[in-house]
Structures are given as structure tokens and as C-alpha cells.
Amino acid sequence: MSDADRDLRDAEPWILTTRIADYIAWGRKNSLWPMPMGLACCAIEMMAVVAPRYDIARFGAEAMRFSPRQADMMIVAGTVVKKMAPAVKRIYDQMPEPKWVIAMGACASTGGMFRSYAVTQGVDELIPVDVYVPGCPPRPEALIEAVMQIQRLIDARARAARGAAPLEAPAAKAAAGK
Amino acid sequence: MPLTGKPVKRPVPKGLLARSYLPSVIKGMWITLRHMFRPKVTMQYPEEKWTMPDRYRGLPALVRDEQQRVKCVACFLCQYVCPPKAIHIEAQQIGTGIEKGPKVFDINMLRCIMCGYCEEVCPEEAIFLTKEYQTVGQSRDGLIYHKDKLLEMGGIRPDSTHKWGPLERPRPADQVAATAPPPVGGTR
User: Fold this and answer.
1) Is residue A112 part of a domain?
2) Model pLDDT for residues A126-141, shown as the tens digit of each residue
3) Which residue numbers of A have CB closer than 8 Å to B's CBs?
4) Contacts B134 to A, Cβ<8 Å
5) DSSP labels for A19-81?
6) Is the ipTM of this complex over 0.90?
7) How much is the pTM?
8) At A73, which CATH number?
9) Which terminus has fewer CB within 10 Å in chain B: N or C?
10) Is residue A47 part of a domain?
């Protein structure tokens, strides 16, 4: 056994091998910087998610960026009125790829109770939405759930890109275990 | 027009020590240090959850009675009262020939604002708001819940009304205890 082989053997427990795509996806999903698009009362619940009780920092998504160029994930929280719609669209366009969108609450998802000519009936008429959160407003837990869903999506996309099966969701695992 | 109200004066620290702001810095750090030894307030969400109060208003769901019958009679009151018009019902005749039942009962959870008007208005106590609050979805269609899904969410909720009682065939008491009577007019 040569010295190089012995060195490699000794170092083996300390080496982590991975694929670069998985590594990037891991980095992305654990440092989602949100762009808080707080347009109405849902924004108050969004603030609660960042506050100590729920603490979205546990998921690495606490760095709210008010510049779209530094953000990964747009949280559309609130009623998107027709007057605001061009601004929402423009801010989304300014975000660098890859980017994700959460439609938080009834108004952002479908227009909610505002079936009106003044309100966009769902922000997905303007920008592609990845996760919808029902509620008026949703509880902070629901928004955390949405962030976790986005994390799973990032993982699933990275795995799908190289033709691997998606990771089993923890909920499905728990159901199978029962 | 004269200005009303009197602006407060900006507090100016007096003395050389106070103007160095060192006491304030130490005070602030002391507060930070103290908080490090206090109980943590963060709820570790996916592992830890609130227990919701009984009157919590989450996603609405349909319920069945003790004998697995759908309580809803498709009276359209909830559809009528729903502020965001999230409910869509289509009625059908059911076996009894007396009542209607829902053929289609869809609730668009992304429209729903969990106001509880449907529960309030329902004359049959057939629709209730559950404690479900952590649902998210990846499509709009996926969050339109159909009748089967709503009934599964609601489960069984017995009540004191026993509206169907007179329709049931009277039977000896010992048999009633042994077997649950079949639903009148089949399952809806």
C-alpha cells in the first residue's frame, strides 16, 4: 500500500462526496432570500414568520431583501390590485434566476373575496406561482410549510435534472410507517 | 392655518460619560446577555405545533352522521351566504324521495376566507370549519376540494337532531344494539 493510498484510507471518514448539482441545490434551498411583496394584511403574518416565535431563520430564509436583485423567492402577501400589478411583474422580472414565488393567502392566490374589476384574480395571471397558501390570512405555520415545499421543489428539480427519483416526502414516509 | 400639537424634545444625554454612549451600549448588551439565559420562545414548527382552540376556524369540511349518511341536503344556503363565493353545489334526488343531496360540492380553498358563515347558516349542521391550518398546494385545481375529500376531512359528527329517525323501521332493542341499521335509501 502506497503512502497516497494510506492517506486516502485515513481520510475517508472525513470526506463527503456529492454531485455539484446536488451541492448547489442544497445551498440554494437552505439560503432562500425572500423578496417580501407585502401588499395587505398577509404581510403582518409574514412579519410574524420572521419574528422569534416562528423564526424562519431556522430554514435559512430570514434575509428579507428589498432589492429584487438580491432575492430568490418572492412572497406575494396580499391583494394585488390592478394598479400594483405592473410593479409586481416588474419586480419579479428584476429578480435573478432561479427564482420562486409563493402566493400567500386568498387574495394573492385567486383574488379571494375581492371579485372585483380592480383586483387581479390571482397573481398567477402575472407571474408563475410555485406554491399557493390558502387562508385569510394564513397562519405563520402555513407560510413555513410553503417555504418547506419550495425547498422540496428545489431538491426535486435538481434530482429530476439528472434523472434521479425524487426524495420521499417526510409526510409520505410517516404515513407508510404507520 | 396654525400648527396644532407640540412636538416632543429630543432627549440630549447630559454629562461626558453619558455622551460617550458607553453606559447605553453596556445596558443594551446586558439585555442581550440576559435573554440568552431566558427560556426560548421559538416554536420548532414542524415538530412542535399549537393545539388549536375548539372554536378555531380552519378549512371547512362536510360531515356525516353516526350512520354514515351525508348530512348536507343541498339547500344552497352556504353557497348563497359565502362572501367570496367559494362554494359550488349541484343538487340531486336521493333515495328517500324526500330530501335532496349534493351531487357536486366543491369548495375552492384558495377563495375561502374561513369566515364561518357557512357553518353559521347551515340548517342541517352539515358543514363545519376544521382545525386544519397548514395546507399548501402547488396548483389552483389541487386546492379545489371535492365532495369526497371534504367528507373525508369532516369525518363523523353526531348530533341530537336525529332528523331521519321517523323514517327508520322500528326494530327490537337488542338488534339495535348489535347491528347498526342500514342507511335509509342507501349511501348518498
Assistant:
1) yes
2) 999 999 999 989 999 9
3) 52-55, 58, 106, 109-113, 115, 122, 124, 130-136, 138-139, 141-142, 144-146, 148-149, 153, 170
4) 139, 141-142, 145
5) -HHHHHHHHHHT---EEEEE-STHHHHHHHHHSTTT-GGGGT-----SSGGG-SEEEEES--B
6) no
7) 0.81
8) 3.40.50.12280
9) N
10) yes
